Design the sequence.
């Protein structure tokens, strides 16, 4: 079944016609670039030339090569998701994936693999459980259990080449939309596909488009929301960096569907590479006549702007984002009127998330029926998630909606890790889903189907797709505190309850962590949570109490241990810890006593030392110095 | 006199940028971003000039400039170090890195070194969550930090 699905995706992409002796793809996503993939790329250029071959860095170069048998195509790709193992290098057509490649390894790859077709085992990924080397993506569990649909081309295409995108069938869907389909037909198709917004809300995209289409007036806008601000989320970044043309194509189809002639891609400033790649892609599309005054020869206009945000989380909210594009403070405004009625500059506006838009061309190409075979009835299609935290395989994944949490954590993620990064069998505590608006999923949710509705039923949400895994040694009060601090900082200040209420909730959580809470604190916290939910205008405030409420629901005992027992079961809340030196472990080396700035540690050389909790300021210097891990609670 | 000619020059530069955006009010954020890039921060003088050219009140420009954390209304260091303070990076050991950076530069977060070289700040998630702790120095991304590595990287900019 899974195999069949993946084959189905292959159909929509045409093969590249490259008459070359071989091809090497190097990942140049942010992760791999940061671990040195550009140096690896440089080394490949040199080594391949040394071996007597020509190097073709772009598709036209490869096509124009006068001696194809002696030309090697060297291509960059977007993020392949497995950043942890980067830089990633794939040798084609054999499809051998090398991980953690260093410039020093390149000469060997050229002579051994490219010329002599031998696999270098040392550079292959080893399965963490079986220790078996894996040759390609299809042998690696991390990839095997995924359905890479939106992300598929991210790892194959050169994101800076419009030629490659076009040759693989890119902009075919846009052509269809601009020449063979009416706006009504497009809206109907997307509605029937059942596609729901990937930006968090899960609102049916087709319905949003139809609402905008029927508005009177000839000035309308499309906005692509690339403000991805949820902590632990980086899916949209990878799509914008890895396949920027797919986002542009989605925007074009949306524009055609609603009758817009101007579009904005709003990207956060924290993503410099995405901004650069999108700008380049827009320029290329304009020069090819894909965008501009005469879109694909249809006589219609579409001007596309790439705009940078300036570091405000609330700007991800659609009405705030619109204010920000208008050059104002990014503050949300009440809905209705919805952007579909009165959006940017007061005109009807469609605003969609990056991933939603990148899915559109695929639906047009694949057809509604096939698309609906992926995922489940109410939530068709795939969703990308960013896995991070205490999990063996971190990275970017894409799975059909409706997959269980267990499959994500234990199959794709490879299991939960302890603080040293070793896989542990019973370490799982929670997954935080949906960032500061979401909630936590616990052991009892492992078999839950991950889709929009089942998550909503249990008071969580898919959100944009960040999955932050936490092991047993994580304190739930601290986690709630962390998210509260986040929303408190990011509250734009417009609504009193969001601005002041979150602050008070934060103080209450601090009391709990500092051992100053009473029975009343918990009561007050819950009361305040409900008030903040009710009294805030936008999603930021409305959902701000979610992390507190959901941790309280599943880990009330842990809160109570803090409040009544003045104890942090996970051993994280500093104020509640009692500094101690384990006499079994202490060798009496005196190092800790010498490091202590307040002379709280005493003891004779060669004998176990002790800490005076009254004097100790919990600076942690002793624990950092101790080679025998004897000091705890500081 | 010297200050005056410098101000004249800035005023001229502001006009050029505002002109590039056709004096459109809705381009205010882009205009401020660009000026912030060229001067490192938005001085009162720059904001007044922008307001004058766009026919806005200075308060309006100021209110936008202070809303966004990437726009500075006070001078910042040549290199702005932005350490991710978001949860995945916290789980990966951000606090130790933060301490190392404080010690290395002798300033706290939110401050700038006296030689004007470095500013130390926290940022929200920069999308390197699976490889935390992560930081940005201007536009360069660094990740998988530990205290030693962070200090080494900062030394390269010294
Ligand atoms: C506080 C807040 C932050 C948001 N951040 C984002 C974001 O970063 N990216 C995004 O696509 N949508 C975000 N949204 C949702 C948008 O308001 C909007 O619903 C979405 O962009 C619509 O696109 P979709 O229908 O394709 O999901 C946010 C909403 C709120 C309330
Ligand atoms: S949590 Fe630090 S980069 Fe995302």
Sequence:
């Amino acid at each position: 079944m899974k195999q069949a699905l993946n084959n189905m995706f292959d159909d929509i992409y045409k093969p590249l016609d490259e008459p070359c002796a071989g091809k090497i793809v190097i990942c140049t996503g942010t992760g791999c670039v940061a671990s040195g993939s550009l140096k690896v790329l440089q080394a490949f250029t040199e080594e391949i030339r040394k071996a007597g071959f020509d190097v073709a860095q772009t598709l036209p170069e490869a096509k124009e090569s006068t001696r194809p048998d002696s030309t090697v195509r060297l291509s960059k790709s977007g993020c392949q998701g497995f950043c942890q193992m980067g830089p990633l290098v794939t040798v084609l057509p054999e499809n051998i994936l090398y991980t953690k490649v260093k410039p020093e390894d390149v000469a060997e790859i050229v002579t051994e693999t490219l010329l002599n077709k031998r696999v270098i085992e040392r550079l292959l990924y080893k399965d963490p459980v079986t220790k078996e080397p894996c040759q390609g993506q299809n042998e690696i569990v991390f990839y095997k259990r995924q359905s890479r649909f939106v992300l598929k081309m991210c790892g194959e295409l050169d994101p800076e080449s419009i030629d490659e995108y076009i040759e693989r069938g890119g902009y075919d869907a846009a052509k269809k939309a601009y020449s063979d389909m009416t706006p009504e037909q497009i809206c109907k198709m997307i509605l029937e596909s059942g596609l729901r917004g990937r930006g968090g809300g899960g609102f049916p995209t087709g319905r949003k488009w139809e609402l905008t289409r029927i508005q009177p007036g000839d000035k309308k806008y499309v906005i692509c929301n690339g403000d991805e601000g949820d902590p632990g989320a980086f899916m949209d970044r990878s799509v914008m960096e890895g396949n920027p043309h797919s986002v542009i194509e989605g925007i074009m189809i949306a524009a055609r569907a609603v009758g817009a002639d101007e579009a904005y891609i709003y990207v956060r400033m924290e993503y410099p590479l995405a901004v650069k790649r999108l700008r380049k892609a827009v320029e290329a599309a304009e020069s090819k006549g894909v965008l501009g005054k005469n879109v694909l020869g249809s006589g219609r206009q579409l001007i596309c702007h790439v705009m940078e945000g300036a570091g405000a989380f609330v700007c991800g909210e659609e009405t705030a984002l619109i204010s920000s594009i208008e050059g104002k403070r990014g503050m949300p405004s009440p809905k209705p009127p919805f952007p579909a009625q009165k959006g940017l500059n007061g005109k009807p506006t469609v605003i969609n998330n990056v991933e939603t838009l990148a899915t559109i061309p695929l639906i047009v190409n694949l057809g509604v029926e096939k698309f609906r075979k992926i995922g489940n009835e109410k939530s068709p299609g795939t969703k990308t998630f960013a896995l991070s935290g205490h999990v063996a395989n971190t990275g970017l994944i894409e799975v059909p909606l409706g997959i269980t949490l267990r499959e994500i954590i234990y199959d794709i993620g490879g299991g939960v890790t302890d603080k040293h990064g070793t896989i542990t069998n019973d370490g799982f505590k929670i997954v935080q889903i949906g960032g500061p608006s979401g909630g936590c999923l616990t052991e009892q949710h492992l078999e839950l189907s991950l889709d929009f509705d089942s998550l909503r039923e249990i008071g969580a949400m898919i959100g944009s797709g960040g999955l932050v895994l936490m092991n047993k040694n994580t304190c739930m009060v601290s986690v709630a505190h962390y998210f509260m601090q986040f929303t408190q900082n990011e509250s734009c200040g417009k609504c009193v309850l969001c601005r002041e209420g979150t602050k008070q909730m934060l103080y209450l959580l601090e009391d709990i962590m500092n051992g100053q809470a009473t029975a009343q604190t918990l009561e007050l916290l819950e009361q305040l949570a409900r008030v903040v939910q009710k009294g805030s205008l936008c999603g930021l405030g409305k959902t701000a109490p979610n992390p507190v409420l959901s941790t309280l629901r599943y880990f009330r005992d842990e809160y109570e241990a803090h409040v009544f027992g003045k104890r942090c079961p996970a051993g994280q809340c500093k104020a509640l810890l009692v500094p101690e030196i384990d006499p079994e472990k202490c060798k009496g080396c005196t190092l800790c006593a010498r490091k202590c700035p307040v002379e709280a540690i005493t003891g004779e050389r060669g004998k176990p030392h002790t800490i005076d909790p009254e004097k100790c300021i919990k600076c942690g210097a002793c624990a950092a110095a101790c080679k025998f891990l004897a000091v705890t609670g500081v | 006199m010297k200050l005056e000619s410098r101000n004249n020059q800035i005023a001229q530069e502001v006009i050029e940028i505002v002109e590039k955006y056709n004096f459109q009010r809705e381009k205010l954020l882009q205009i401020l971003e660009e000026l912030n890039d060229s001067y490192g921060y938005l001085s009162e003088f720059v904001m007044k000039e922008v307001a004058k050219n766009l026919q806005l009140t200075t308060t309006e420009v100021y209110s936008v400039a202070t809303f966004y954390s990437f726009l500075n209304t006070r001078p910042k260091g040549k290199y702005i170090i932005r350490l991710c303070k978001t949860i995945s990076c916290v789980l990966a050991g951000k606090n130790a890195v933060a301490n190392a950076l404080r010690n290395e530069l002798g300033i706290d977060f939110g401050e700038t070194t006296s030689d004007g070289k470095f500013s130390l700040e926290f940022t929200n998630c920069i999308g390197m969550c699976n490889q935390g702790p992560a930081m940005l120095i201007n536009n360069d991304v660094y990740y998988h930090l530990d205290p030693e590595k962070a200090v080494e990287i900062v030394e390269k900019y010294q």
Notes: Residues A 231-232; B 84, 86, 88-89, 125-129, 132, 134 surround FE2/S2 (inorganic) cluster (ligand 2) (CB under 6 Å). The two ends of chain B are 34 Å apart (CA to CA).
